[in-house]
Amino acid sequence: MSQEKKLPWKVIRGMQWYLGLPDKFLKDPVSNLDSSFKVVEMEDGLQGLNVEIDEKKLSLLQKDVIKRGGEYLEAAPLVIPLYPSKGLRLKRKISYWLDEFQRLPYVSPYEDFQHLNRSSDNYEKRVVGVFHETLGLFVDHSAERKKLFCLRLYLGLPQKFYKVLNATHIYFTFH
Predict the structure, then answer these.
(1) Cα dihedral sign, 149-152-153-154
(2) N or C: which end of the chain has fewer CB within 10 A?
(3) Contact 142, 135 (CB under 8 A)
(4) Can you tell me the distance from the alpha carbon of 39 to that of 9, in angstroms, rounded to the nearest whole number?
(5) In the chain, where are the structural domains located?
(6) Please, what is the Cα angle at 48 between 45 and 53, to 5 degrees?
């Protein structure tokens, strides 16, 4: 979500199927929310959902490291699992870049990212982490590109977010 941690209802409604939300959730959201969420007014008179997280939230990748018996250390490299498509042979240059990319420190999608330089490799790894986390929230771990594009503004992603979508779609699938 954005720094304000708000998402408009119209976006949630458009993602309803991907998120596995029943129709009754959108008809009476107030009674279906736990204490971490609340309905708020947003700019332009829109209503949205606000998230109030008091404790530190772990991403799916961080939870997976802990589940496997490892220890997740803040600002440590965390390998994003990528599964090459069948028959794909990475060129040496791309393979070297991918190895270096995996060695970068992991920035959780739930952490403040304002200190990151938007043109840095660390910021790009955060974008891939946000993409991975978002797909992990969806029922079948996939979504139409246009559905993901509408989340760009609310997830704090750069204008050229489509580059990550294109690169990961061509080279890898997430699991």
Answers:
(1) positive
(2) C
(3) yes
(4) 9
(5) 1-55, 56-175
(6) 140
11-60 pLDDT tens trace: 888 888 888 888 887 777 767 677 777 888 887 788 888 877 666 777 88
Which of 126, 139, 131, 113 minimizes the C-alpha distance to 172? 131
- Helix, strand, coil tally for the chain in percent (to 5): 45, 10, 45
Report d(CA 161, CA 155) in Å as an integer: 11
Cα–Cα distance list, 94 to 90, 124, 130, 166, 172 (Å): 6, 15, 22, 15, 13
Strands 6-8 and 37-41: unpaired
Quick one: pLDDT at residue 175? Answer: 46
Architecture per CATH, 1-55: Orthogonal Bundle (1.10)
d(CA 119, CA 121) in angstroms, rounded, equals 7
Q: Quickly state the pLDDT bin for 88 (edges 50, 70, 90).
A: low
* pLDDT at residue 124 tops 50: yes
